[in-house]
UniProtKB/TrEMBL annotation:
Belongs to the PqqC family. GO terms for biological process: pyrroloquinoline quinone biosynthetic process. It catalyses: 6-(2-amino-2-carboxyethyl)-7,8-dioxo-1,2,3,4,7,8-hexahydroquinoline-2,4-dicarboxylate + 3 O2 = pyrroloquinoline quinone + 2 H2O2 + 2 H2O + H(+). Its EC number is 1.3.3.11. The keyword Secreted does not apply. SUPFAM superfamilies: Heme oxygenase-like. NCBIfam families: PQQ_syn_pqqC. GO terms for molecular function: pyrroloquinoline-quinone synthase activity. Ring cyclization and eight-electron oxidation of 3a-(2-amino-2-carboxyethyl)-4,5-dioxo-4,5,6,7,8,9-hexahydroquinoline-7,9-dicarboxylic-acid to PQQ. InterPro entries: Haem_Oase-like_multi-hlx, PqqC, PqqC-like, Thiaminase-2/PQQC. The lineage of its organism: Bacteria, Pseudomonadati, Pseudomonadota, Alphaproteobacteria, Hyphomicrobiales. Keywords: Oxidoreductase, PQQ biosynthesis. Pathway: Cofactor biosynthesis; pyrroloquinoline quinone biosynthesis. This is Pyrroloquinoline-quinone synthase.
Amino acid sequence: MSDLLAPEALERRLREVGETRYHHLHPFQLRLQSGECSRGEVEAWALNRYLYQACIPQKDAHILARMEDAGMRREWRQRIIDHDGEREGEGGIAKWLKLTDDLGLDRADVMSGRLALPATKFAVNAYLSFVKDRSLLEAIASSLTELFSPMVIKTRVAGMLSNYDYVTPETLAYFTARPVQAKRDSDFALAYVLENARTPAEQQAAIGALEFKCSMLWAMLDALEHAYIYAQPWPDAFKPADAVRREAAE
């Protein structure tokens, strides 16, 4: 990209990334929301996704530490509170653990990450490294997947409640507050990127950062699809109860 884009054109480019690369298009996501996943696949999704959820406040803490403006830090730290809560048992991570609890997963196993797929661990670590090692502009731009998450959340929640009788609104409580939070957060991040990407190289870096984040989320679903639909999980990874019983019978 050699020409400087007007802010409106840059925003269009960023939104195009979501339209073409966000994981609402991934086959596993489509299976999940349409009721085609087995219970074991839903469990594997929730267990692996926990590692990503747990890394979000860590990611935001890295970004926060790099901000020199107090007003920006006050704005950004709300993201950490949203996920960690003000006290034990509150916040998005606690609500995600409610989801895994309701699916019958052992909380200690989920939190340890020991049963997650290797690709999940690699993806999460790559994201944390990205926000630490790249420019502040790129780190903030990578969070712009929140521009697209509300549309996925609405479809995912409706589909899971309609198609899985073991899932309740309480099970999916994590998603209740996320559309409002994501809108607030993405408005702030988008305004920052549009104001601070002042050269063609910086604008391309911001677009690339969002592409990276989309690729990271896509890779996590690639791993789930491969391991639990077409092949088999890594030996130390989570195995659904039906797979364990099948192996025992063999």
